[in-house]
């Protein structure tokens, strides 16, 4: 009679144990309640219950493939610097003025700060609307290439620098200045912001 009671008690305990495991954080495995670690047999194998389902298998037990860590994309930074063409060039000219050095050297230093993380530099030449489209396009390309050459001559890798001529396609002052009905000299001064070189610096910082 005592043996039957003991057997019944042991069976009830096992049922309770397996039932608890079926709803545990690691369903299908016998877990040490004090450490939350999967119990292992003498061969180091995870001890499974009758509720074990391969779909809920644990990688630590060899029953699932460990998820690969998500790749973290590198951080890309972009900085755009606008330089007045009046400082860099003479009117309708593409060769640098002597004072251009004071404007371009700080940009060179800023580019070099990126070091090996420099992705690229784009130099854009822009003009006002005065003159033909063809002339302005050519002038903007020449100015962009002049600035690119300066950067390269001062240590920026040539393969990292791109020169682009935008011509008069991105003017900002045309309508405002036209509406003022100015003399040619004053109109030229009004349009000065359109005659510019813009430098975009792109750097990449590897994810940690």
Précis, in short:
With 208 residues, the protein is α+β, with helices and mostly antiparallel strands. Helices cover 35% and strands 19% of the residues.
Report on this model:
By secondary structure, the protein is an alpha+beta fold. The chain has 6 helices and 6 strands, in the order αβββααβαβααβ. The strands form 2 sheets. The protein has a 4-stranded mixed beta sheet with strand order 3-6-4-5. The N terminus is likely disordered.
Which secondary structure elements does this structure contain, and how are they paired or packed?
Blueprint: H1 2-22, E1 31-32, E2 37-38, E3 75-84, H2 85-88, H3 100-112, E4 118-126, H4 133-153, E5 161-167, H5 174-179, H6 184-190, E6 196-205
Parallel strand pairs: 4-5
Antiparallel strand pairs: 1-2, 3-6, 4-6
What structural keywords apply?
208 residues, alpha+beta, four-stranded mixed beta sheet, two-stranded antiparallel ribbon, 6 helices, 6 strands, 35% helix, elongated, disordered N terminus
């Amino acid at each position: 009679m005592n043996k039957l009671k003991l057997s019944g008690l042991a069976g009830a305990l096992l049922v309770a144990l397996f039932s608890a495991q079926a709803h545990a954080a690691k369903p299908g495995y016998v877990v040490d309640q004090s450490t939350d670690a999967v119990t292992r047999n003498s061969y180091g194998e995870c001890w499974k219950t009758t509720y074990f389902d391969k779909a809920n298998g644990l990688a630590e037990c060899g029953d699932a493939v460990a998820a690969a860590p998500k790749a973290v994309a590198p951080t890309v930074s972009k900085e755009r610097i606008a330089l007045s063409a009046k400082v860099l060039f003479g009117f309708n000219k593409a060769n640098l003025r002597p004072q251009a050095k004071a404007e371009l050297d700080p940009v060179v230093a800023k580019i070099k700060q990126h070091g090996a993380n420099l992705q690229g530099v784009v130099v854009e030449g822009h003009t006002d609307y005065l003159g033909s489209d063809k002339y302005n396009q050519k002038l903007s390309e020449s100015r962009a290439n002049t600035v690119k050459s300066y950067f390269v001559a001062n240590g920026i890798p040539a393969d990292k620098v791109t020169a682009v001529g935008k011509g008069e396609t991105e003017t900002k002052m045309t309508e405002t200045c036209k509406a003022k009905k100015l003399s040619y000299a004053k109109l030229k001064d009004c349009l000065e912001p359109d005659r510019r070189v813009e430098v975009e610096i792109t750097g990449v910082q590897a994810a940690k």
